[in-house]
Write a structure and sequence with these properties.
about 270 residues; mainly alpha; 10 helices; about 75% helix; globular
């Protein structure tokens, strides 16, 4: 099968790796773009970031929607808060898509790596210090808190639109530290946000594509069902088996791996 200049063997290797990512990341409120993007950047060498990001958004949506569904079955999604934050995130999505389409690719990669190192370091610090978990989730929030959350959600949308991630790398810490939701409910709410924002970003890439630009729908049609299947299996299993501390540790390690690959890519190009 022809994938527009991408060899079939590379696509198959990518399929295996993103299946593994989807299995675990569906438990983290992350779309998996923190590793989908580096994996494709390393293996699908004929693609540029502007090609990779829309593909990652499709995979991130599959991961987020399955995670949102499985978490909602356990009443671990705050739909009102998620909808409010996602509405603000749409503003950031538009800015993020414009950023990736107009700036130098090296700047996109550098921004990706910097954001991920910052967030992962914060999470690692909390794990090391054994910071107390939020055991109960509030049911109401002040206007000031909502306004602050919406402001930070614009950054979430920007990260989604520019880097092809699910946004959980920003929204999970936001919901835990600002709104004080317990970790599992924060993860479910983040997944719900990502399920709204990732398709919005993907559509923005389609509508802003230049004449003749390739969106690689062939690769998306082959790999998105793989992501969906393994994300569903992973999130169902993880809700029964994984403790919050283990989930946070996996989260942190995955984010660091994504940042490292982007740094190496910058150094080697």
């Amino acid at each position: 099968m022809d994938f527009g200049g991408v060899d079939t063997a590379s696509v198959l290797v990518v399929a295996v790796l993103i299946a593994i990512v989807a299995f675990f990341y569906s438990n983290l409120g992350l779309g998996g773009g923190g590793l989908y993007v580096p994996i494709m950047d390393a293996l699908l060498v004929s693609l540029y970031m502007v090609d990779i990001v829309p593909l990652s958004l499709m995979f991130a949506f599959a991961t987020m929607i399955t995670a949102a569904i499985t978490h909602s079955r356990k009443k671990l999604v705050d739909f009102r808060l998620g909808t409010l934050l996602a509405s603000a995130g749409l503003v950031g999505v538009a800015a993020g898509v414009a950023f990736t389409r107009t700036v130098d690719e090296r700047l996109v990669k550098a921004g990706f790596a910097a954001l991920f190192v910052l967030v992962a370091t914060k999470m690692l610090y909390d794990i090391y210090k054994s910071k107390n978990e939020n055991l109960l989730s509030p049911t109401s929030f002040s206007f000031r808190l909502k306004l602050a959350g919406m402001g930070i959600s614009i950054l979430t949308g920007f990260a989604i639109g520019s880097f092809g991630i699910g946004g959980g790398v920003v929204s999970v810490p936001l919901i835990i530290y600002v709104f004080r939701l317990e970790a599992r409910k924060a993860i479910g709410t983040s997944a719900f946000m990502g399920a709204i924002l990732t398709p919005a970003a993907f559509m923005a890439y389609i509508f802003t594509a230049e004449t003749g630009a390739s969106m690689h729908f062939d690769i998306a049609l082959v790999l998105t069902p793989v992501v969906f299947f393994f994300a569903f299996i992973g999130s169902t299993w993880g809700l029964k088996r994984l403790r919050t501390r283990i989930v946070k540790t996996i989260f942190t390690g995955g984010v660091y791996l994504g940042a490292i690959e982007m740094v190496l890519s910058l150094l080697l190009t």
